Amino acid sequence: MARFADAGAAWVIKGGGMLVIAATMGILVLITAVALPLFYSAGVQQLAEQHLPASPAVLAAGSDDYLQTLYSIDARGLVTIYNLDGRSVQVSYRLRPGRGATILAAESKRAAQHTLVWSDGVVSAIDVNATPVTLYQRQLLRPPKFAALRNKNTLFAVDDDLLTISSSPAAAGPQEQEELDLFGVSESEPQQLDLSFTLATVTAFDVSADGLEIIAGNAQGEVVRIAIDAHGGSTVTTTRVSHAAVTALKYVYGDNSFVVGDADGQLTAWQALRGNKLVRFKTFAAMPAAVRLVSKAGRSKFFAALDSRGGIALHFLTSAATLRYIPPTDGPRHTLALSPRDNALITVNASNTASLWQIDAPHAEISFTTLMRRVWYEGYAQPEYVWQSSSGTDDFEPKLSLVPLIFGTFKGTLYAMLLVLPLAVAAAIYTSQFAAKGFKTFIKPAIELLASLPSVVIGFLVALWLAPFLQNFIVTFLLSLITLPLVFLMFLFLWGKLRNFAGVERFERQREFMILVPVVAVAAMCAYYLTAPVENYFFLGDFSMWLYDVVGMQYDQRNSIVIAFGLGFAVTPVIFSISEDSLDSIPKALPLASLALGASRWQTIWRVVLPSASPGITAAAIIGFGRAVGETMIVLMATGNTPIIDFSPFNGMRTLAANIAVEVPEAPVNSTLYRTLFLCAVVLFVLTFTFNTAAELVRTGLRKRYGNF
Questions:
Q1: Exposed (0-12), middle (13-18) or buried (19+): which is 60, by Cβ within 10 Å?
Q2: How far apart are CA 218 and CA 196, in angstroms?
Q3: C-beta atoms surrounding 393 within 10 Å
Q4: CA 125 vs CA 107, 108, 255, 590: distances in Å
Q5: Would you put residue 403 in left (φ > 0), alpha (ψ -120 to 50) or beta?
Q6: CB atoms closer than 10 angstroms to residue 472
Q7: Residue 438, pLDDT score
């Protein structure tokens, strides 16, 4: 009967172990499946094809939000909306019936919005929705080379090589600027815009959505940027951006940077930093031929480029990646536009055939570069590692680098282990080898009882009590790191003299802990009374201000030192318990044989006990490290959760676990942020699994090495 019971128990244990392994692997598969779509390549599929009239030429095209209709604007000013389901004409609308003028050029302001230049010098802006409507119209003396209407009062036009910015139909004139006083009363002041610039052979042109920035490129490979301030003044910056002629210019969504295409097929992105200096911060894969035009998205940093052969390249600004290249299989294309939702591409080829391509790239901003390498973001002076998942503006550029989170995870864990590991192992050695039996019976359960404390309680106490307390006594704490070893060395010297007296040596046996408590108290008192003179003499009376003004470090109340104490409460019971059990499991014959051969107690511990127990102690350290890596509530509550890369112990950090807890409630399901958080979970899982596996491998290897002791 006992044999059957043992066999049954063995099978139950094996089955339970297999179920645990299966559940663990199932969790890994689940979180990996959610994160994996981040790395899927972009898909492009042709949804529809519409044959347009053979003449006149189509100058602009687009689609509606739901990809059910497609519209075209031809050179006669006829806007035609086609129903893609039935391939029928839904509505036709002639913009200027009976005028006889034709459209010379069409510039896309954004999806479904176009600026048209007519042969009689009229410049108009239209918005194509259910029915196209002419929004604004300006009459010039002659048709300009490029033009853009940005609002009712401002017209930007390039006539040959002269750029004119005017607030009236014919020339620059006064413009009303409306302001509100303290009581909300509207006040208007006329302002004169005197902005005319002579540019050499303008080949490309674009204006920001607010009309306060203009960029123009020429055949010499130069770009002129004109920034208009609130008072009508301007700042002009000229920068050489290419060795070939600039053939395409377009602001990217948000108007913080712009894309330049040249006659050699090169695509680069530029931004204006402090001092209005133009800096190239992105370089994209070159196209096979000269870049003809660039179309920007209206909701993200996505854009498409068309070359002179008709090939189309889809790019994303943040990752600087080419998402897809569409070769000119249906002949040379001359018109390119993105849909209002950035999920489709509309092209028109030389035979006036319009094609609607669906784009499937929901996570275009994610790549290995954006996750693990330095990225040069808009508004930054250099490439950096940044995690910033949200902002107050719609044109925000997501910054989802995992490096600050991984760094913060290891930083918090490292400082915690530097504090905890020596204390926990030393406590295990003392409890196992030196402490009296009664004291050991009390102290071991007391330390192991710390493991029952909820992490949220530890985080609460550390954040609301320890952090302010340590801020007030940070100099005292730092001094104690010096006074404690000094006082301890002085005590050892004095105790060596006292051991010559009878009874002293017997008193220290198994009472070392009681003797050292006053030593620690004396060291702490010395540090406390030295705080004021040391802070006044060395730190100008304020350590935090001195640290910032002289060293350049900022002291955060919730910093790495606070985290070290907080994680110490969570990790100490694990390391202490495993280490103490490993020391206790050593056969008693080993230390007794060493003592019998004349070795001292410390020599026995150092040369015999510790090597024999090293497999368990090493495993305890690695398991404790993995426990600290996965801790959530303590680091969530006790740090400032700032995802920065800084080795200073006086700064906080954000760990992978804390980041998941902070960001998940605000992440839309299946969004890029949502899947990136699952990727954080995968990285955290792999880290903890690696540490636990390494602990087992090290323990097994050391056991084989020292098993014959």
A1: buried
A2: 16
A3: 7
A4: 9, 10, 20, 93
A5: alpha
A6: 8
A7: 76
Could you tell me which residues are beta bridge partners of residue 158?
A: 146, 163
Q: Are 679 and 389 spatial neighbours (Cβ–Cβ below 8 Å)?
A: no
> 247, 242, 229: which is closest to 283 by C-alpha?
242
Residues 6+ apart with CB under 8 A from 289: 265, 307, 308, 309, 311
Residue in 691, 689, 635, 682 with CA at minimum distance from that of residue 662? 635
Q: H-type helices in 434-466, by residue range?
A: 437-448, 455-461
619 half-sphere exposure, CB direction, 13 A CA radius = 21
Written as six digits, the tokens of 428 are 């295990």
pLDDT computed for residue 434 by the predictor: 81
Give CA–CA dist 203/450, Å, rounded: 73
Q: Which of 390, 265, 246 is nearest to 322 (CA)?
A: 265
| Omega prior to 56 cis, within 30 of 0 | yes
519 CB-near residues (< 8 Å, 6+ apart): 487, 488, 491
- Residue 303 has a pLDDT of 93
Position 52, amino acid? L
Contact 489, 553 (CB under 8 A): no
SS3 letters across 85-125: CCCEEEEEEECCCCCCCCEEEEEEEECCEEEEEECCCEEEE
Q: Catalogue all structural domains in the chain, each as residue range(s) with its CATH number.
A: 46-181+188-387 (2.130.10.10), 403-706 (1.10.3720.10)
Encoding tokens for residue 347? 């092209």
Q: Which of 45, 129, 47 is nearest to 87 (CA)?
A: 47
Pair of tokens at residue 262 = 């040249």
**What are the pLDDT digits (tens) for 65-98?**
888 888 989 998 888 888 887 667 778 888 888 7
The three-class DSSP label of residue 311 is coil
Whether the per-residue pLDDT at 551 is higher than 70: the answer is yes
Comparing 222-236, 282-296, 559-573, the range with the smallest average pLDDT is 222-236
The whole-number average pLDDT for the span 543-559 is 88
* Residues 104-125 as b or e (16 or more Cβ within 10 Å = b): bbbbbbbbbbbbbbbeebbbbb
Q: Fill in the amino acid letter for 444.
A: K
pLDDT at residue 515 is higher than 80 = no
How many CB atoms sit inside 10 A of residue 354's CB? 25
Is the Cβ–Cβ distance between 343 and 64 less than 8 Å?
A: no
Structure-token match 């479904």, residue found:
112
Tens of pLDDT along 583-614?
888 888 888 888 888 888 888 888 888 888 88
Backbone angles phi, psi at 69, to 5 degrees: -130, 160
Which range, 159-168, 317-326, 392-401, has the best average confidence (pLDDT)?
A: 317-326
Identify the residue whose tokens are 């955060």. Answer: 556
Q: Judge contact between 307 and 266, C-beta under 8 A.
A: no
Instruction: Give the SS3 label for residue 357.
Output: strand
Question: Vertex 43, ends 88 and 293: CA angle to 5°?
Answer: 70
